[in-house]
Amino acid sequence: MDDMNVPIPNGPLPEDKEKNVETSDIRFCKFCGSKIPKDAVICTSCGRQVEELKVSSSVSQPIIINNTNTNTNNNNNNTGGYVNPKNKWVALILCFFFGCLGIHKFYEGKILLGIIYLLTMGICGIGVFIDFIVLLFKPNPYY
Ligand SMILES: [Zn+2]
Q: How far does residue 44's CA lie from ligand 1's centre (Å)?
């Protein structure tokens, strides 16, 4: 290697310089500052462990299994929230009489929307009107 072109700095390296070096094939040991191959695990100069041993390949597999587990859990939770079928006609009547109070939204379990309807009088009646039309074309029971 040519030491004349790239001077070896004494003392701690600035992090930016290390990152730039990492893009090439050579980087500096963080302990002694000498040039070592990019993928070196142990410094060739001082013999200290520079990189953590790659255990990640064996660790990643259980993580993937965990991910699938959480995914299925999430799916179960999602379906669990909407399992109760809603009676179309009950929602229609609630929407017709109490739509401006957002009662039909509370009935559907959409508490946040219900509060919004309650505060805005069913979005000035427009939201209630749209909900009424949408409910008319929904299957019975709907979810
Ligand atoms: Zn070293």
A: 7
Nearest CA among 78, 82, 126 for reference residue 108:
82
The dihedral built from the CA positions of residue 112, 116, 121 and 124, taken in this order, carries a sign that is negative
- Ligand 1 center from residue 60 Cα (angstroms): 29
Task: Say what the pTM is.
Answer: 0.41
User: How many angstroms is it from 57 CA to the middle of ligand 1?
Assistant: 26
Residue 58 Cα to ligand 1 middle (Å): 27
3-state secondary structure of 35: strand
Q: Provide the residue-wise pLDDT of the chain in tens; the chain has 143 residues.
A: 556 666 666 666 555 555 554 456 888 988 999 998 888 888 888 999 888 766 555 555 555 555 555 444 444 444 444 567 889 999 999 999 998 899 999 999 999 999 999 999 988 889 999 999 999 999 888 88
Ligand 1 geometric centre to CA of 30 (Å) = 7
CA pair distance 67, 71, nearest whole angstrom: 6
| Rounded (5°) CA angle 50-53-58 | 160
